Amino acid sequence: MAPKIQWPLVLFSMLAGCGGCCFAFAGVAGALGESTTVTLWATGISLVLVVVGAVCSMMHLATPRHAFAAVTHLLSFSGISVELIMLGVVSALMAAYGAACLWFDNELVRLVLGMAGALAGVVLAFVTGHGYLISSKPTWNTKKLPLAYTGTALVAGGFLYAAVSVATGGVWAMELPVKLLLAACAVFSAVTVAAYLGHLGMQTAKKNPTLFWVGIVVCGLVVPLACAAILLAPLPSMAFVAVAAVGFAAAMAGGLSLRMLMWIVGAGFLFFFEDAQANRSAILNC
Fold this sequence. Notes:
By secondary structure, the protein is mainly alpha-helical. It has a single domain (7-284), classed as Formate dehydrogenase/DMSO reductase domain (Formate dehydrogenase/DMSO reductase fold), CATH 1.20.1630.10. Helix content is 79%, strand content 0%. It has helices at 7-32, 36-60, 64-71, 79-103, 107-130, 144-167, 176-200, 202-205, 209-231, 237-265, 271-278, 280-284. Helix 1 runs antiparallel to helix 2 (36-60), helix 2 runs antiparallel to helix 4 (79-103) and helix 4 (79-103) runs antiparallel to helix 5 (107-130). The longest helix is centred in the last third of the chain and has 29 residues, at 237-265. This is DMSO reductase. Keywords: Membrane, Transmembrane, Transmembrane helix. One of its GO terms (molecular function) is dimethyl sulfoxide reductase activity. It comes from Adlercreutzia rubneri. InterPro entries: DmsC.
């Protein structure tokens, strides 16, 4: 069977995960004292990414009616129901945090919402990969997969926050604590991606050499690590934004490449998704 990449799910996990993790960085920076103007910008962009990701997920279900039918099964706590729950939780926290920045001059409220949002944003990135743990699919059935999803989303969200923060006049992204956090996320991403590739084995991981070497190794590992290291040095604001933007673009490309590889190596199981797509009405209404 020829590999068939499920693009709506690839985009959903990357966009929603990146948005959730960018919001996590905004929450941490807000706790450190970043201005509400900067964190509000980052929160707004994060919310857009999460919403667009949710729309991509809905596209996989073909029609809004099927998506709403899935909502009725939330308490099943299946993979899709947990994703929907976390999408709702993260979106609500983003909206509440934005409202607190705009209309409530209460640092404690912003701190609580920001920290809750930081945790929820990272959990969202994790659950977008956790739903693929299926015992009958060895290439997917490992906790290393959702951890790699989380790592790639964290580094992309971190670079996005760094670029947006400094571009909108923020200062905390250029301070050592946030720089070290971003560098730690880059290392975490590299370790988790390497762990998942190790689970697959090099022969399987290199089924598509261009995707592996250019997409995952160069864009997903080398460039983000290099950019995170460069950002540790003192840089002018414009140079900082430029390096962060390059890191963000590379991290997004690397994260998407990892998700594409997951579908390629899972080709033997794709008949299930084709059958589910053909019978989605019966499945969702059972």
